[in-house]
Amino acid sequence: MSELSEPHSAAYMGPQRDLFWNPDHVELLGRRFQLARAKSVLDVGSGQGHWGRLIDRVTAPDATTVGVDFEPAWVAEATLQARAAGLGDRFRYQQGSAESLPFADASFDLVTCQTLLIHVRDPSAVIAEMVRVTKPGGLVLAAEPNNRAGVLVETFPSPDSSPETLVRRLAFYLICEHGKIVLGEGDNSVGDRVPGYFAAAGLQAVQTFMSDKTWPLTPPYDGDEQQSIARLLAKDADSGTWLGRSRDDSWRLYRAGGGTATDFDRCWEERMQEAKAVAAAIETRQLHTAGGVIHYIVGGWRTYA
Ligand SMILES: C[S@@+](CC[C@H](N)C(=O)[O-])C[C@H]1O[C@@H](n2cnc3c(N)ncnc32)[C@H](O)[C@@H]1O
Q1: CA triplet 65, 71, 77: central angle to 5 degrees?
Q2: From first to last of its 305 residues, what are the pLDDT tens digits of the chain?
Q3: CA angle, corner 170, sides to 253 and 282, nearest 5?
Q4: Top mutation candidate among 1, 6, 9, 44 for ligand 1, by most atoms within 8 Å of CB
Q5: Per the count of CB atoms within 10 A, which of 74, 208, 283, 286 is most buried?
Q6: Which atom of ligand 1 is nearest to the CA of 12?
């Protein structure tokens, strides 16, 4: 990758990742999935390491974590962040592909990922690799969303909130989402299918839960979390993006999803009007939302057989 190009998922890698889970829910998940038994952890598609550092709170106290990511920039950044968090002696990161993990069979007690499967061409192939490197009796754990649901959550204070407006917004999103699948870049709503993929991969006692964290915004947006959510929602208007995606990138996906240039221009204009309305409503402290998201967590055990 050239030094000038953006690393994969850069638009979605900010501090808001720390808002994906409530800390007490992570503790609950730790008990449900017996994460305290995990002494060796592999975080696949580790990015800047947010997910690995979060679940480290509930794995064995002396657990070691290896993160693997195909982006050298993220490997370097995650290494720095682990050191800064005082985890340098137990965490290490290396470059590698989720489709061909650079580890021997049965290497880890816990093999996990968050928002990785939404970016891969063949999630089942990646899950098979995750199962391969999991020790018998170990756990495979994936946190993956259904992002299309979020498009209907009321964070867009459009002047016209008619059913037709919602349908046009959803259609735009779905065509882009379909284009991403067609291009082999992953399915942003793959979370719905992860439990089935886990069962098909031979994992046992598959359990599915959902993050109970929302991204609420309530005027006057007091506190760091609300400020961070407000900044994120207002960002599209400043940067001329929609849901963090540039016009060019959105057109690339929309076209691959079967959309026409004329429809795209019309839809994009409407998205930009919405983005400006969102930013204005935040500026005037009018916007409020419960900010629900669908972010699943799915676990399944590798058998001894
Ligand atoms: C949205 S980020 C999630 C990062 C991290 N799991 C978290 O939750 O903070 C997705 C990460 O997966 C990495 N990635 C995507 N496809 C990959 C692949 N096939 N092999 C390895 N890493 C991959 C990207 O570089 C990126 O760092």
Answers
A1: 60
A2: 223 345 666 656 566 677 789 999 999 999 999 999 999 999 999 999 999 999 999 999 999 999 999 999 999 999 999 999 999 999 999 999 999 999 999 999 999 999 999 999 999 999 999 999 999 999 999 999 999 999 988 766 555 678 898 899 999 999 999 999 999 999 999 999 999 999 999 999 999 999 999 999 999 999 999 999 999 999 999 999 999 999 999 999 999 999 999 999 999 999 999 999 999 999 999 999 999 999 999 999 999 87
A3: 100
A4: 9
A5: 74
A6: 1
- In this structure, the answer to whether residues 16 and 70 fall within a common structural domain is yes
Residue 130's closest CA among 305, 304, 302? 302
At a CB cut-off of 8 Å and minimum separation 6, what does 275 contact?
A: 236, 237, 241, 242
| Domain co-membership, 168 together with 231 | yes
> 43 with 128, same domain?
yes
Q: Whose CA is nearest to atom 14 of ligand 1?
A: 45
Would residue 3 count as lying in a domain? Answer: no
- Domain assignment present for residue 288? The answer is no
Q: Which protein residues touch ligand 1 with a CB less than 6 Å away? A: 8-9, 12, 17, 45-47, 50-51, 69-71, 74, 97-99, 114-116, 119-120
**Which structural domain range is residue 58 located in?**
10-147+189-213+293-301
Distance 286 CA to ligand 1 centre (A): 35
Q: Got the DSSP string for 69-104?
A: ES-HHHHHHHHHHHHHTT-TTTEEEEE-BTTB-SS-
The reply to whether 143 and 17 lie within a common domain is yes
Residues 105 and 204 occupy one common structural domain:
yes
The closest-lying atom of ligand 1 relative to the alpha carbon of residue 74 is: 27
Q: Are residues 92 and 113 in the same domain?
A: yes
Number of structural domains in the chain: 2
CA of 81 to the centre of ligand 1 (A): 16
Query: How many Å lie between the centroid of ligand 1 and the Cα of residue 241?
Result: 21
Contacts of 224 (CB under 8 A, 6+ apart): none
Q: What is the pTM of this model?
A: 0.94
In a domain, 5, yes or no: no
Indicate whether 221 and 73 sit together in one domain: no
